[in-house]
Amino acid sequence: MPNLEHPAYPAADLLHLESLVPCRESQVSTLLSIFGERQQFSFPSLFIYGHTSSGKTYVMQTLLTTLQLPHVFVNCVEYFTSRLLLEEILIQLQSCSSGTEQTSPVHCDTLNDFVRLFKQAVASRELQDQTLYIVLDRAEQLREMEANILPAFLRLQELTDRNVTVILLSEVVWELFRPSIGCFEPFTMYFPDYSIGHLQKILSQNHPPEYSADFYAAYINILLGVFYMVCRDLKELRHLAALNFAKYCEPVVRGEANERDTRKLWKNIEPHLKKAMQTVYLREISSSQWERLQHDGGEPGQLKGLSAHTHVELPYYSKFLLIAAYLASYNPVRTDKRFFLKHHGKIRKTNFMKKHEKTSNHLLGPKPFPLDRLLAILYSIVDNRVAPTANIFSQITSLVTLQLLSMVGQNDQLDGPRYKCTVSLDFIRAIARTVNFDIIKYLYDFL
Fold this sequence. Notes:
- This protein is an alpha/beta fold.
- The chain contains 20 helices and eight strands.
């Protein structure tokens, strides 16, 4: 029995719509109840909110297109000023009324001009006999525009005296939209996140025709078991599913297992899913490079946890400052003479190792250091002479802001600020590689 029923729309269209929006039948049913019949006046404005990738934009586009309801769909990020936004709405209205994509340029400078041109655009009989829907995606951008834009869209039906409904799609709640002086309250509707059962059902619909539905559903179940706790974005999960499915099928293709041998298939795919966990959302490499690395058995990248692009974007001297901070955090103070003076003589590690220093400094964690020591190490490891200018000190502040360094204690200390380096060994080794600096030679724990 179909879940979507409405007397104003053909049953075949509703059945097709239901197949296109799985796990969102209750939201679509609510929207159909609000819309009513084509010629009826609907609610003046709707506010639909929910987290990213919860189906707001897709459901609205699919609903309006499948039922062939006249609509205008505008992304507020793309049309980021009020003039661009209003002109784009009028341009799309021209194509709705004329039925062709060829439109004349529209100039709309004020909201009064928009109301006047809007009435002219909807004067055709086709748009007068049914409700027109204006959908504003990423509507949180409206808060950055003029103060009269949002209240005007909420009351557009009253201002134009036309059968029009404005639908705002956003990732933030209505309380962050409401102006301090008040406005017309829209009908609010929440799209909840997809549950793991919903994700399983949606992702399983994309199974390749050469494999059975049960085989692909088992793969999706394994994928969600690994990634669901760290990623619930449907688009990202769909990308990961397409990226790793070839590796999952390898034992079946080679004849080493059949489609029901779940244990062998899991043991084959497990290490590759763990590698993919390191780069969720980051897109450090392309899909073709990832497939090549899987085929060659290589690592997904030299860096773990953080994107390689982050390291490249640091300024040249900031990299050396971060290296100097790491050395100051993990090397004892008395080893600075050994590492950073040219004529220090031969000093064996056992000569100045105390009993309580048998534990690795990397296990004990970073230790605070003063600013003078940081600059002294910096001058030693940089080839060319560096003057202690305001540029260097501002880069230290930037590293603290990026949370690569942390300030220890209060700013009003008489002996100057003290810092800690908060990055990992893998991170700093990747930084050092970009400037051709062998940091292992300067670490006390690796002597």
